[in-house]
Amino acid sequence: MATDDQILLARRHLASARNVTILTGAGISADSGVPTFRGTDGLWHNFRAEDLATPEAFEQDPQLVWEWYNWRRELIATKQPNPAHDTLVKLERQWTDRMWLITQNVDGLHRAAGSERLSEIHGNIWKVRCTGCGVISENREIPLPTLPMCRLCHALLRPHIVWFGESLWEKDLRRCDEALRACDLLLVIGTSGVVYPAAGFASVAKDVGALVIEINLENTPQSDLVDLSLQGRAKDVVPQLL
Ligand code: BV8
Ligand code: ZN
């Protein structure tokens, strides 16, 4: 559990930072009841995310992949942002252009909480993209028809999400690079640090001399690299940083 001294130290680092960048993962949404990827609650019908969140899986069985996303959409639709999401909105309103939020989460909870200075680097579960004409649209229909079709060109729609083996969007990668190189403090909240390129972001920040603080329930592959590890639930620890 993060000690009072550690929290005090983290608050001091935050208060004296010029530019803060934040990287979040599924752990920040766990406190809202959204299952994480690699936690025991992360499985769905015995499938692993890595098996379903791939272009090959969609190619082979688009119906199964859409059933998985419909299940997650229905689940996420009942969840609300938690105090950790809300604290990052407060931070954005205080810090404005000295802060940027990078999330790996596709659940849309940061946006729902009010975050705007945000890169959703793995996409957003409420957006769909046409495999024919490429049009991206917001779609909150629950459940989506099992094989949703584009109204414009009638091709199959896919989730506007970055799957394993797919590159992240250039625009996001550039914005992340800018935010990581400009920051003198990086907060890494609720990520297991196994999925690249996000798992490499802490070392990018370290390379430019930034201080890195990790908030997680347990140690991760990044834990030896970070300057301060605060153990605890994001919803409890993050609000104490302000
Ligand atoms: C890329 C969308 C270039 C899906 C996701 C072989 C072939 C091809 C690629 C690769 C390969 N080997 C490696 C790669 C690269 C691959 C990768 O890194 N694989 C890993 C598994 C080794 N990466 C990619 O493919 C990326 N693209 O590299 O492009 C390229 C192109 C072609 C070929 C090679 C390279 C694309 C990655 C994006 C994949 N899409 N999501 C969907 O969501 O439907 S990633 C998925 O994992 C989620 O987005 C999730 O956010 C992300 C990371 O997981 P976490 O957020 O960290 O969640 P996790 O459950 O793991 O951990 C939760 C943490 O929270 C834990 O630490 C836990 O302790 C903590 N926690 C829990 N509760 C709390 C808490 N902390 C605080 N409070 C709590 N209450
Ligand atoms: Zn289309």
Give an overview in words.
The structure is a single chain. The chain has 242 residues and is an alpha/beta fold. 35% of the residues lie in helices and 18% in strands. The chain has ten helices and nine strands. It has helices at 4-16, 26-30, 49-52, 55-60, 62-76, 83-95, 109-113, 170-182, 201-207, 234-237, and strands at 20-24, 99-103, 118-120, 123-130, 136-138, 157-161, 185-189, 211-216, 228-231. The protein has a six-stranded parallel sheet, sandwiched between helices. A three-stranded antiparallel sheet has the order 5-4-6, covered by helices on one side. Helix 9 links the parallel strand 7 and strand 8. Helix 8 crosses helix 9. The radius of gyration is 18 Å and the shape is globular. The chain binds ligand BV8 and zinc ion. Residues 130, 132-133, 135, 150, 152-153, 155 line the site of zinc ion.
Task: For this entry, give a set of tags.
alpha/beta, binds zinc ion, 3-stranded antiparallel β-sheet, 10 helices, 242 residues, 6-stranded parallel β-sheet, binds ligand BV8, globular
Return the average pLDDT rounded to an integer.
95
Shape: globular
How many helical elements? Answer: 10
* SS strand fraction: 15-25%
Compute the separation of the termini in Å.
Answer: 18 Å
Q: Which small-molecule ligands are present, each listed once?
A: ligand BV8, zinc ion
Which structural class should the secondary elements be placed in? Answer: alpha/beta
Rg is 18 Å
Order of helices and strands: HEHHHHHEHEEEEHEHEEH
What proportion of the residues is helical, as a percent range? 25-40%
Lateral arrangement of strands in the main beta sheet:
3-2-1-7-8-9
Stretches where pLDDT is under 50 for at least 5 consecutive residues are none
Specify the biggest β-sheet: 6 strands, parallel
| Beta-strand segment tally | 9
